[in-house]
Amino acid sequence: MPKKIRKCFDKNLTFEKMIEAHERAKKGKLNRYEILNFDLNLENNIVNLVENIKNSRYKVGIYRSFTVYEPKERVIKALPYVDRVVHQWYVEEFIKKYIVAKFIKDTYACICGRGTHKAVNSLQKYMRIAQRNYGRDYYILKMDIKKFFYSIDHAILLMIMEEYIKDKKLLQFTELLIDSDDEIVGIPIGNYSSQFFGNIYLDKLDKFVKNHLKVKYYVRYMDDFVLLVKDRGEAIKLYLVIKKFLTDDLKLTLNSKSRYYPNSFGVDFCGYRIWSTHKLIRKGSKKRIKRNVCKWNELYDNGSLKEKDIVLSFNSWMGHVKHANSYTLQNKIRRSIKFFNNN
Questions:
Q1: If we measure between CA atoms, which residue out of 258, 235, 255 comes closest to residue 142?
Q2: pLDDT digit string (tens) for 204-232?
Q3: Do strands 64-68 and 74-78 pair parallel, antiparallel, or not at all (unpaired)?
Q4: From CA 273, how far away is CA 267, in angstroms rounded?
Q5: Which H/E stretch holds residue 75?
Q6: CA-CA distance, 337 to 292, in Å (whole number)?
């Protein structure tokens, strides 16, 4: 793999690759009007898109903003469908192919074959190793970034991308995507490329922690990261050094919940409360499923419950909790759902 991405923009800008991007972008969303409309004249739409990009006529569309409230309040910005196809093409042909492979092994977000459960398992493995090597009194640093995606500096991100990209056309196109919402700080959460740009931005932190600070036991999932260290003194020192690095080099601020503490408290990470010996479900997850059960039971009593919705939602929750020590909780929740008990 080359040290920098060279002479590949035009080579990867083809009708076939853009069709592949379209197929990925529309997956699971086939009934949406804008996708059906795009499919009606698919060949011309793809040809025009490729030609516009090739001749520097492509302009990013206008964002549509909306707010979501689960698991926390966030402003989402969504682009028109044609732009989502472009982001799929860009990430698949350049980011995944050339950059993701250079990440450290202990970063887990948005990487094929990794994900939350492997992040949790890796952290628990490190907790066991740390206990053997440091004793029962080792310390945990649990840290995350305040409003991470809204705080990413465009100029810094572009400088980081320049470390990977030598191809001038690709670099210009990258700048176009980064600056697509006319802001100089913050990238839209709704863009497919944003999660990868975020990972690339914090890869600087990963390399600083692993290569410069020489921390052995470190796991990151997007802007949420954990370090396991020998004692309180080392925890304090690393906390201050990392805080300074984030401020000076990446213009980021630690969330006020970032802290260090004895390992006996466990660690709240990726939806679980983790100790070296076991994993539990977050209290927030329990509250949400109990609220959902109350809603489902009320709809069931009114005769307006949709079977498909409850089965999909409950199975999704079960897929999460089965990775924790939660056998009793699973049975309790299932027994409390009227739909399952009466069918």
A1: 258
A2: 999 999 999 999 999 999 999 999 999 99
A3: antiparallel
A4: 6
A5: strand 74-78
A6: 10
Report which of 297, 204, 287 is spatially closest to residue 242, judged by C-alpha positions.
Answer: 204
pTM of the predicted model as reported, rounded to 2 decimal places: 0.88
Which tokens is 74 given? 């966030």
Q: Give the number of other CB atoms < 10 A from CB of residue 297.
A: 15
> For the chain, how many residues are written?
343
Strands 139-144 and 74-78: unpaired
**HEC readout, 220-249:** EECCEEEEEECCHHHHHHHHHHHHHHHHHH
Q: How far is CA 117 from CA 113, 122, 250, 266, in A?
A: 10, 9, 28, 17
Upper half-sphere CA count for residue 241 (Cβ side, 13 Å): 15
Could you report the per-residue pLDDT of 146-155, keeping only the tens digit for each?
A: 999 999 999 9
Confirm if 118 and 196 have CB atoms less than 8 A apart: no
